[in-house]
Amino acid sequence: MDETKGILFDESFQKELKGRFCYPDGDPKYGERLFFDNSGGSLRLRSCVEAKAELEMFPDCPERIHARGMGLKELAKEGAREILEIIFGAKSGALMTELTASQTMFQMVGIIMENTGGKNAVTSAIEHPSSYDAMEYYCRKTGKEMRVVPANHETGGIDPDEVVKYIDQDTCLLSIMAASNISGTIMDLEEIARRARQINPDIYIISDAVQHAPHCTMDVDKLQIDGMNFAPYKFFGVRGCGFAYVSDRVANMPHHRLLAKEQKTFELGTCSPGNFAAAMEIINYVCSIGKHFIDSDDRKALYKEGMRRIHLQERALLYHMLEGTDEIPGLRHIEGVHIYTDTQDLTCRDLIAAIGIDNIDYTQCVAEYQKRGVTVYERINTSIYSKRIVEALGLTGAIRVSPLHCHGTEDIDKFLKITGEIAREYAG
């Protein structure tokens, strides 16, 4: 079987997975719709919502020694361990928790920049504002030069060859996102890290994986990086929490903490066990997908296989969305539709397409999709959040289309038919 074009789940399994999500095909107030804006906040697993809600009903403090309190403390401890070992693939290091993943990024950047020497720090032009702005803020604060690696307009990514041009012996920190939240292009972090350390063995390397985490396994030990984060609300989970891994050498730096606690503790105040319970349900879900394909009781192996299968399913959906069928043309074959940063090699892509349609601006086009029951999102250069990123890709904007692995080919076909309708309606 040709994995370069992905491998679809069998239809019954795909529908069973979709049934585990809340409102996958419609909003109870606003009606039926295709939710193809999972990059902005993915469909929620029912088990995640229920796990958090169940624990939020109890007033007990995890710091107390009665049964409920000790149970909550143990759950949070186990959740933290699984997030580190299974989601991040870390055998050491520490877990950082905040209300958002953006806060963890500012924390990581600040700790490293304020506790290292060097004269410059390197990031890329297509970083999310949370990482780009954190780098800019702490470069100003510490008096270091900020160097920005340009994007490859054809691939929508950041090339290792380009990154190393900006690194030298005085570079203290390199921050490159794991995958673009506009193009879906996956960065070759392993090669970037390897070559960066050839130039400067002491460099610190971190990565914003908020976009990439729901699509593919993260492995900080394999990458040999010092920090990585993800946001559960974009990873089938709940809002109100962000998680990050930091290496031992970062965890041992001075940082905000309660002085009575261990050096590698980043949590300020009492933890929210419900957030850890919800994160464990993400792991349970991915492991259940792995269990469908391999016979194992090893949660790490099951999680890894589950994420691999998610990635293959999404690659197959992306291929279907791009190429279509004999009856329904794909995005590459609909007259008037343009795919930005389109690449033939889909093994380096997450399930995202950045598109435009002739004779209609992006905001109006999103409204046209909405009228037809499809939720997508525009990233445009009039937005303070998108301007730098889309212009770095050589664009003025794009409509971001991001289904999820639980969608099926019939969902993609429906989207393609509607796209064709809009393109024909606005044809010159």
CATH level 1 class label of the largest domain: Alpha Beta
The side-by-side strand order for the widest beta sheet comes to 4-10-9-8-7-5-6
Instruction: Assign the CATH architecture of the largest domain.
Output: 3-Layer(aba) Sandwich
The CATH homology group name of the largest domain: Type I PLP-dependent aspartate aminotransferase-like (Major domain)
Q: Distance between termini?
A: 42 Å
**Structural domain tally:** 2
How much strand content do the residues show?
A: 5-15%
Helices, by number, come to: 14
As a percent range, the share of helical residues equals: 25-40%
Strand elements, count:
15
Shape: globular
Average pLDDT rating: 96
Radius of gyration: 22 Å
Overview of the structural elements:
The protein is α/β, with parallel strands linked by helices. The protein has 2 domains: 3-45 and 308-425, Aspartate Aminotransferase, domain 1 (Alpha-Beta Complex); 49-282, Aspartate Aminotransferase, domain 2 (3-Layer(aba) Sandwich), CATH 3.40.640.10. It is built from 14 helices and 15 strands. The chain has helices spanning 11-18, 46-56, 67-87, 101-114, 129-142, 160-163, 189-199, 220-223, 248-251, 273-293, 299-323, 362-371, 387-392, 409-425, and strands at residues 26-27, 31-32, 34-35, 94-98, 120-124, 145-149, 171-175, 204-208, 227-230, 242-246, 337-340, 353-357, 374-375, 377-380, 397-401. It has a 7-stranded mixed beta sheet with strand order 4-10-9-8-7-5-6, with helices on both faces. It has a 4-stranded antiparallel beta sheet with strand order 11-12-15-14. α8 links the parallel β8 and β9 (227-230). α3 (67-87) packs across α10 (273-293), α4 packs parallel to α5 and α10 packs across α11 (299-323). The longest helix has 25 residues, at 299-323. It is globular, with a radius of gyration of 22 Å. The two termini are 42 Å apart. The model has no long low-confidence stretch (mean pLDDT 96).
